[in-house]
Amino acid sequence: VPVSNIRNFCIIAHIDHGKSTLADKLLQMTGTVQKREMKEQFLDNMDLERERGITIKLQAARMRYMLENEPYCLNLIDTPGHVDFSYEVSRSLAACEGALLVVDASQGVEAQTLANVYLALENNLEIIPIAIFLVRFVGDIGMISREWELVENLEMYSLGTDDVQVDIDVAKIIDFYSFHPNKRLVGYNRRIGAYQGNVESTRASLVLNKIDLPGAEPDRVIKEIEEVIGLDCSNAIRCSAKEGIGITEILNAIVERIPPPRDAARSPLRALIFDSYYDPYRGVIVYFRVIDGTVKKGDRIYFMASPAMQDYFADEIGVLSPNQMQVEELYAGEVGYLSASIRSVADARVGDTVTNYDRKAESSLPGYEEATPMVFCGLFPVDADQFPELRDALEKLQLNDAALKFEPETSSAMGFGFRCGFLGLLHMEIERLEREYNLSLITTAPSVVYRVNCVNGDTVECSNPSLLPEPGQRKSIEEPIVKIEMLTPKDYIGSLMELAQDRRGDFKEMKYITENRASIIYELPLAEMVGDFFDQLKSRSKGYASMEYTFVGYRESELIKLDIQINGDPVEPLSTIVHKDKIAFKDCKGTKASYCRRKVGLLASFAKSHVHPTPAVTNR
Ligand code: GDP
Ligand code: MG
């Protein structure tokens, strides 16, 4: 089909609002997949994901759709639904011209709904030709006109980008600052109210799902979205992904409301990588969207941000329908995959730009970020014989996870193991290791990366508490701080504030986004969040609260090292860095000792299989 008949879109939603179910229905309705070949959910193809209802890996699917005798090619790019993957979500959005915003009509706006909308808007500003469309689409739910003075701000973002298609609509639509949580979130309800007088024509993209549920209240939710996000929802599509209601309307809306990609096939190749995975036979499979130029089978290609600075031959190029299907060439606007005997996903990272080695693009696509691990912990096999298997498992996992780092660690009590670095709240990955590779692991308490300012003027980064410089050498310790936003029904406000306070949270702001729901913002140490914070949030709110977090920077804090001895012998991998106030010396009763109790619980499970426990907690 001509580029004018291509539509690239993604679905943004909070977890459980029905993104996968809707994606499956779109695939079925377009005849892309037959019902019988359909697994539970085609787009989530890992067991773990299906069980936990989260999408870890992004996937893509190409669909054919006929509307008024015209054939269209619709590319759905899936986005991960977990709080740790906002960078990946942002790259998927950057690969699209439009987004469907799915909201559960029996629930309403959740933290991730908001976060993803912000991301969509942010993206607009990064990659103008793409972004514009996104906004229009999201905007379709409610184009908020804005005054001319703010338009200037938007144009500043578009300067310096080649091929800027500054569409004046866009400029009028987005109030970037009022949407952007980091910039000027305060009082956006009222502000948007003020703009609603100027709502423009719509290209609706809001999908209200689960209208079949008896508890569905589409009108209330629409009102909430209008108030909270400031979008006009008069064109919202009501659907039930489960029952198949409203699916045709959605397909038509995709064709009618999402603009086609820009026709830039003659420029040098620039393709945006939005996902990659390692295949043992063909090497890394790269999923990409061609933004400019074309890519042909056999082309010599180059990854612009890869430290390897190596070129490859594209052995295989194809489309995802949703299974891989080889083609000869892909043009600007299309979505596909390639393989080129690439050894590890670290050489073809999400967000990187693929270009042609013999005709390189002048600049890479904006928005690329290195993946750096935020959280570290020690992993030791319960059964020492499993050490080689653990190493194999980690190596395999690393082929697929550019952010995973690990190095060997040994201790006389724990034996041989690894110190590992992960991107975010790590239990997911650890669970995967245990399950997929049949390992039984001892996990030490997670640690973040501390910055230690030493007496001699050096600053060292430390992610392993046992390597912390001696007390005499250190002047101060800084720790990473995150800003969290919790959205919760008002009944749980007290309990959640208590939780955040207990985790050394610094209260920033609370406001009611609707009569019944509040947004609570805290800044707190990442170290306090990596453990069970998310589980606590869920259990204290009976599952109704949601959260998002962003890294804000490093801050000095009164931290000390907690060493743990078993039978009088220090077990170094169990050392942790904790705040002074969290330690109750030698005493593991009472509220202040909660930290110690958790520690000892962990020790006890370790000791069961190794030594007889008489754990003693000492401080130094
Ligand atoms: P995701 O996390 O956004 O991908 O959500 P899923 O597609 O996995 O759906 C979460 C749950 O909601 C599943 O149990 C679905 O069966 C259910 N669900 C999805 N769409 C609908 C719908 O339209 N109506 C009802 N009643 N349930 C739905
Ligand atoms: Mg899903």
From TrEMBL:
It comes from the Eukaryota. Residues 4-262 form the Tr-type G domain. It is a peripheral membrane protein. It comes from Corchorus olitorius. Keywords: GTP-binding, Hydrolase, Membrane, Mitochondrion, Mitochondrion inner membrane, Nucleotide-binding, Protein biosynthesis. CDD domains: EF4_II, EF4_III, LepA, lepA_C. The keyword rRNA processing does not apply. InterPro entries: EF-4 (IPR006297), EFG_III/V (IPR035647), EFG_V-like (IPR000640), EFTu-like_2 (IPR004161), G_TR_CS (IPR031157), LepA_IV (IPR035654), P-loop_NTPase (IPR027417), Small_GTP-bd (IPR005225). GO terms for cellular component: mitochondrial inner membrane; mitochondrial matrix. GO terms for molecular function: GTP binding; GTPase activity; ribosome binding. Belongs to the TRAFAC class translation factor GTPase superfamily. Classic translation factor GTPase family. LepA subfamily. Promotes mitochondrial protein synthesis. May act as a fidelity factor of the translation reaction, by catalyzing a one-codon backward translocation of tRNAs on improperly translocated ribosomes. Binds to mitochondrial ribosomes in a GTP-dependent manner. SMART domains: EFG_C. One of its GO terms (biological process) is positive regulation of translation. Pfam families: EFG_C, GTP_EFTU, GTP_EFTU_D2. It catalyses: GTP + H2O = GDP + phosphate + H(+). This is Translation factor GUF1 homolog, mitochondrial. GTP binds at A13, H14, I15, D16, H17, G18, K19, S20, D78, T79, P80, G81, H82. HAMAP family: LepA. The keyword Secreted does not apply. Signal peptide: none annotated. It is found in: Mitochondrion inner membrane. Gene3D superfamilies: 3.30.70.240, Elongation Factor G (Translational Gtpase), domain 3 (3.30.70.870), P-loop containing nucleotide triphosphate hydrolases (3.40.50.300), Translation factors (2.40.30.10). SUPFAM superfamilies: EF-G C-terminal domain-like (SSF54980), P-loop containing nucleoside triphosphate hydrolases (SSF52540), Translation proteins (SSF50447). Its EC number is 3.6.5.n1.
